[in-house]
Amino acid sequence: MNNKPLDNTQLIEEAHRAMAKAYVPYSHFPVGAALLTKSGKIYTGCNIENASYPVSNCAERTALFKAVSEGERDFATLAVIAPSKRPVPPCGMCRQAVSEFCSPGMLVILANTDGAVTRTTVAELLPGAFQPEDMDQ
User: Fold this and answer.
1) Are 104 and 134 in contact (CB under 8 A)?
2) Catalytic residues
3) How far is the C-alpha of 31 from the C-alpha of 111, rounded, in Å?
4) pTM of the predicted model, to two decimals?
């Protein structure tokens, strides 16, 4: 990757490319995500369904878990896209997973394939998130 900063449109495009890889034989609702690290690396993810629905994984968690499994812990921006009527919001499980690894003020870009975009933060997506320090006794 070059030293030129990545703009949000490019991150949405990366998420869109990831969406094309979604495995969605049941819902027929592909979702793509792109997670930008502070060092400039991008981890993408798509949703992957399973006939036993709880075994399925969302695009956001796929991207996040790929990054974490590679040792990444410092994230700058997450983009998510789907062919939805409004910019696609993450599910509750994804909001909790993102809140575990991303700063409350981190930018989250929600988009749809019609070009609608909403910018928010991790804290706005999940106010009062359960945090690791909540487990301290």
Assistant:
1) no
2) 60
3) 10
4) 0.92
- 106's enclosing H/E stretch is none
What is the per-residue pLDDT across 16-70, written as a single tens digit (0 to 9) for each?
A: 999 999 999 999 999 999 999 999 999 999 999 999 999 999 999 999 999 999 9
109 HSE (CA, 13 A, CB side) = 26
H or E stretch covering 78? strand 75-82
* Cβ atoms 81, 15 nearer than 8 A: yes
Between CA 13 and CA 2 the distance in angstroms is: 17
For 16, list phi and psi in degrees, rounded to 5. -65, -40
Tell me what percent of the residues of the chain surpass a pLDDT of 70. 96
